[in-house]
């Protein structure tokens, strides 16, 4: 009766002593505590308070508006221990909720953080004026008054709080405009924002004013749509702008409040925007903003008044008034506010002598927050800036310029990886050097589609990285673009800034709207438009003949891109783009190059270490140290093995193989080979025989170095056989079946194998090997299409490459048909010439008998017979008789005393005479009238094999 499992477990487990119980209890408690600490919500280092506040702003500062605010106050802040503050503004379409996580991060660093939903958004009242100095900017100034009234906020003077302003996109524009308008601001960090709102929505890349710009209808529609949805009860949506490193979801909740005196169409004092009486075309936009949008969207052009309205909400005109140290963070993946906007802000602020620093990262309105390494870098720069200029702690931040570039894909994090770089002095958009690359192409006619339909798609707002997938799908349309290309680059280049190119154009209408793009084309022809950025151009006064056209220089959007050697540059001039408004009248332009080169700004930065990169390098260093250690151990082991085994035993110098006292025992005590001794001499074909599990395959595995023996010695031409021994090159082997690379042909597999040996190709003897394989034209087919027999023949040919002096084959006829087996028999006999030898393991005893000169019989891990095949077979008592009447002869002989007719004679009459003279047996058959044609001894290896191993032949078992 078996013992119950619980009882067996109790006996198997250690006896519970007092020490063991205490130890287990302590370890369990510590583990539980660690897990609990990790999962238990940690107390926040700050408190939050929501408050709806009413302030007064407007042109005269007397119009009330309700703003929904939230204050994050660090624990311990008090009148006795006041803290510095940060005003954190959200992006367009967002609310105070949009910046919640960023507010918590900053508050966690010891700042009081005040967030709010800007007028027209979330639960705040009022209408949207696009960061108007009279409205949104004055609203923010009133919020500074609220901070100044709190005793727990640090002051520079009475009514002057110690405060920094941070914001992205819409919030970033507010930070710049507030710093210019309110001198109490101590530092600002504007992110992914604009310099000139008119130029942002009406860009023109040859230097024309916004009144001549090309309307960016895609982004303008998103802006106007998200602002329209921001009204009370409106649906939540996604809008451009956010916390400064990407767009945020809008928080459209609660009821709006009236904006007295705003003058929106259909509204008046006490009538909230978005409710009955409001103009549905304007939603929560102020009337002047709404009129400007409707005008531009209808005509595709901006009037001087519309441009003036947008510029009132632009930092461009007030940069000289900004005295607060400024950190400008701008996204490289941004078709709304590209890098040129931050560059203009940087130059204007620096001209006034204000400290300014610029940082670019691989995100933006189209690219989001970017990879984690970029997020970490921009957060560090932001806090470093605030700590020094607002909190007053830490050394002054460097004024170096930083940027980043996508370096690859992190399989562990499943996201893109960006590498940051630093340059001592900000180079602007011109780089630190220029490189010209020649481009060429004939003048080409291109068609302007009616009303811009169909149109090319260069970018997808808020999904700019997808633009790399557009080429060949919905990118440049046939007939609507011209291409000009360079030769392959001879060396790589790092483009940092705005490339320039010169074009010419002719138009039957005298005008043309064009879109110029710069593609990176790899050697396979795949073209990539960096971040979907294009240069819109409006040309006027054009001739009808291109020969009369004057060159016009086009400044392309600034990019950060490494262009590898072997890649080509492609300049594309297109007539349409889904993101822009184009002339409705269909026509055909002619475009050509205005010069023979494109100019590219270049720069070389110093890589910025990150926590991830430091850990990666540390891990690489650790792995390298381990690898070096392993290499040293292997080299020392090989050196010792070779040092101790360089001598050649003269007794075996001319013997291909000597096995002495071989034993293989596994760790669990299983003995696969007890003791094996045999030799393979020149000219011999030796068969290694034995029943399944006798130890044949284990012996071959030890011989080929696939496993180490427990005891014994193996010599090859007198050299002790050790792993890595040079003498192994004199052995060809097929052990444990063939293995080939399925995507390569048979011939390619043979060549690849030979190259791996490092020996000269002329020593391979491919012709002989292929003749042996007999695959014909199939040798050029991929091996994944081979049958098992074809793979076996190819494996034998591989073993014979180089004509090794010792050939070791395990079941070489497996999978071969009878004619191929017969041919293999002849091949092995021919091979064992000129001092060569063959060791073959097979279960086909008839083939061994016909092929091998010698045999080694193994049973239960030991040799039971070895020597020439003839000697192992020996004299057989059986005799085969070829007679005219086998049936009658069988009856006659069965009546003879001592003579026994064997039951299985393969159709012949096989007799065990048991000492009776063969002549007497023949005479008896003749007396019975039976003709005897031939008498011959019956000698079979199978008989000897069965006699040696018996019926109970199951060995100790191979592994």
From TrEMBL:
Gly residues bias: start-end ranges: 229-245
Skewed-composition ranges (Low complexity): 246-262
Keyword set, alphabetical order: ATP-binding, Hydrolase, Membrane, Nucleotide-binding, Transmembrane, Transmembrane helix, Transport
Gene Ontology molecular function: any one: hydrolase activity
Region (Disordered): 229-278
Bilayer-crossing regions: 21-40, 614-637
Domain ABC transporter: 657-885
Pfam families referenced in this protein's UniProt entry, alphabetically: ABC_tran, Peptidase_S15, PepX_C
UniProt-listed InterPro entries: AAA+_ATPase (IPR003593), AB_hydrolase_fold (IPR029058), ABC_transporter-like_ATP-bd (IPR003439), ABC_transporter-like_CS (IPR017871), Galactose-bd-like_sf (IPR008979), P-loop_NTPase (IPR027417), TAT_signal (IPR006311), Xaa-Pro-like_dom (IPR000383)
Top-rank lineage group of the source organism: Bacteria
Protein family per UniProt: Belongs to the ABC transporter superfamily.
PANTHER family: ABC TRANSPORTER, ATP-BINDING PROTEIN
Protein name: Alpha/beta fold hydrolase
Native species: Micromonospora zhanjiangensis
Phylogenetic lineage: Bacteria, Bacillati, Actinomycetota, Actinomycetes, Micromonosporales
